[in-house]
Please model this.
Amino acid sequence: MEKLSKQEIERHYFKKFVASDKYKLPKCEVIFGDRPDVIIKGQRKVGIEITNLYKACGKDKKSEQQQREIRKKVLREAKRRFEKGGGKPMNIQFTFRLPIPINGKRDQEITDKIVLLASKIASLAKRSEFGEVPWCLLMDIPELSSVLFSVLSDDDPQWTECNAYDAPDVSIPRLKEIVKGKEKKVKGYDSCDAYWLLVVIDIWDPAQDQRIGADGLKILSKKFERILIYENGRNQVVEVATS
Model:
């Protein structure tokens, strides 16, 4: 599947926001751009900037954005090494302890241990076609909480992760951080009568899934006339008080 560009993703979210019918936009002409992402031209020319609200900054090594890539890399490499070494193809499902992030310096060590773990799982598979790996075999990999395996006929065995994620209330400090960062870029936008900020929470992405909660959010902003939070998936929209 071809990866969508940043602009295509933003347009997708804006169209879903409009289609949700949870916030009435004035009758206007819609123009997609870059700075800002959308301009609506009616009685006024309003520029709308679109951004996603992640639970943590993507530059943070502990953020889900980075951790999920590290986990995928570890499992992909461990599977490759195990099968290259003659290991029997198996479906294995790993559940990670999300509060224990994988340190960048430890990913190689964890890969080695998972390869060894797979060899022990292969021994279990000789007695059963599927099951849960005993917890005692996971004691030296604290990043893992449970592992399931199956050796049922499969032309494309997979090593996957299955984690339980939480959906906390939106972090006000994090939201303020996002708003502040976007305010600094307004001076580079096309000239408009006013600017709005559309903050998207995509609940299908564990790195973003949060709950807006009740109305009453307030963030002072001298740059954005309106700040709207849209939950894609729950179709909820909340307007943040800006003055």
In short: The beta strands are 29-32, 38-41, 45-52, 91-96, 130-132, 144-150, 159-161, 194-202, 226-232, 236-240. Residues 109 and 141 are 9 Å apart (CA to CA).
